[in-house]
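Hello forum,

I keep getting stuck at the same step: I have a sequence, I want structure tokens, and every attempt I make locally crashes halfway through. Rather than fight my setup again tonight, could one of you with a working pipeline run this one for me? It's a single chain of 318 residues.
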Amino acid sequence: MSVVVHEPGVVAEPEPVRSRGGFIWQVLRERPSAAIGAAVLAAIVAVAVLAPLIAPYGLHEQVGPVFGHPSWPHPLGLDDGGVDMVTLLMWGARVSLLVGFAATLVSMLVGGSVGLLSGYFGGATDTVLMRITDYFIAIPDVPLMIVVAAIWGPSLTHIILVIGLLLWAGTARVVRAQVKSVRERTYVKRAHSLGAGHARIVFRHVLPQIAPLLIANTVLTVAVAIFDETALAFLGLGDPSRISLGKIIENAFQRTAVSSGAWWAIVPPGALIAIMILACSLIGQALEDALNPRLRVAYLGARHFRLRPLVGRGPEAL
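Reply #2:
Ran it on my machine without issues. Output:
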């Protein structure tokens, strides 16, 4: 329970502590941009998951001429093999989202563990882990991903590991800063003085406090992972046996879609990638702003700003 003071000397009624799920639901209601992003992302995920059932044609089924124009049976036209573009987008979004979420999971596990250990133990552990993190932050992500992916070979598992193992540095920094703040709080010090072990303190007191910020950072990392997968696939380093959105664009460029005027083979997958990244960004930024009070000042406006009356200056004081 928390007590809110609205005016000097006046105490409002205690407000019940909301659950984490209820808080996120309130954020989605109060931020229309986050609600739109969540609805769009949920729709794309649903279509991608149900692609084997609702796709109008087979993934490798030739249903018309090469680069067939958009028509009523094929609203987005056909690709260089005469395959329906709507079907390709459904399957391509399926693979791109799989890579994005799986790589983000790897990144969160590595970055969260490094940030947790660094922030909680401090000292030499903090110094060593943060120096390693600095090296990964200083190296450009995409060139390093290109080199590692070229060495490991084109495979969906390799792409997930490459992206996940190179995106953890930012997460580690965010988690470390939050953990350093949480470990100095009174209830954590009290638990330590009562003989609680490090594992109990971390899992019982520290992790629940950093979980919201970690969730927000996870959603933002999904957007980056989708973009990186598209870049690698477009450069020919993706899994040749899987159709992702980046692979669709790469095939269109390699098979003269631009010179043939077949814009429908390039624009729809590019637009879908942009929509997915934008949806993830809207959700992640809204959660981060709501769960990190220090960021709320960025949204201070005239509608939310008011001056309190000065005590002892009379009614004419503003």
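Confidence is low (pLDDT under 50) at residues 1-18, 295-305. If your local run keeps crashing, start a new thread with the error log.
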